[in-house]
Amino acid sequence: MQQLLQNPNVILLLVLWVLPWKGWALWKAAQQSSKVWFIVLLIVQTVGILEILYIFVFSKQKKIEGGTIM
Fold it and tell me: Rounded to an integer, what is the distance from CA 18 to the centroid of its chain?
């Protein structure tokens, strides 16, 4: 695994994979005024997994009256 991560081509592919997902997720979090999600997405590096989950799962949830999440 260590040799794989020392390969510049692998690192370039990882960067090209992560940047669009991170950018999209940060943009959605900012549009929804979700400060906590924005900070978490900015700091935590999960190779795009958390970003994809936020885009397709967590950003779709809406709060209804009474504070319950649908």
Answer: 9
pTM of the predicted model, to two decimals?
0.76
Q: What is the pLDDT along the chain (70 residues), one digit of tens a residue?
A: 778 778 899 989 999 999 999 999 999 999 999 999 999 999 999 999 999 999 999 998 765 545 555 4
| Three-state SS sequence of 1-62 | CHHHHHCHHHHHHHHHHHHHHHHHHHHHHHHCCCHHHHHHHHHCCCCCHHHHHHHHCHHHCC
Pair of tokens at residue 57: 């799962």
Phi, psi (5° rounding) for residue 2? -65, -40
Q: Is 40 exposed, middle or buried (0-12, 13-18, 19+ CB in 10 A)?
A: middle
